[in-house]
Amino acid sequence: MEILVYGAGRMGQIRAEDLITHPAVKRVVIANRNAERAAELASRLDIESAPFDRVDPLAFDSVMITT
Question: Where are the domains of the chain?
Fold first, then answer.
């Protein structure tokens, strides 16, 4: 399963941390209005980040909004 997480704040971090440990989840991507903040969180969790306005939510199996 591939999941997009909108929001790189505390809740986005908590959700992403949970998701990356789930065996069914193959990919987690963080998107945030502040691309630098998304990249920072993604780097800490060893996942991908994407620009908020350029990511296609339809390309994912699930979208989690944490803003």
Answer: 2-65
- The string of DSSP codes covering the chain is -EEEEE--SHHHHHHHHHHHTSTT--EEEEEESSHHHHHHHHHHHT-EEEETTT--GGGSSEEEE--
Closest to 28 (Cα-Cα) out of 37, 18, 36, 56: 18
Q: 5-32 pLDDT, tens per residue? A: 999 999 999 999 999 999 999 999 999 9
- Per CATH, the number for 2-65 is 3.40.50.720
Which pTM value belongs to this model?
A: 0.94
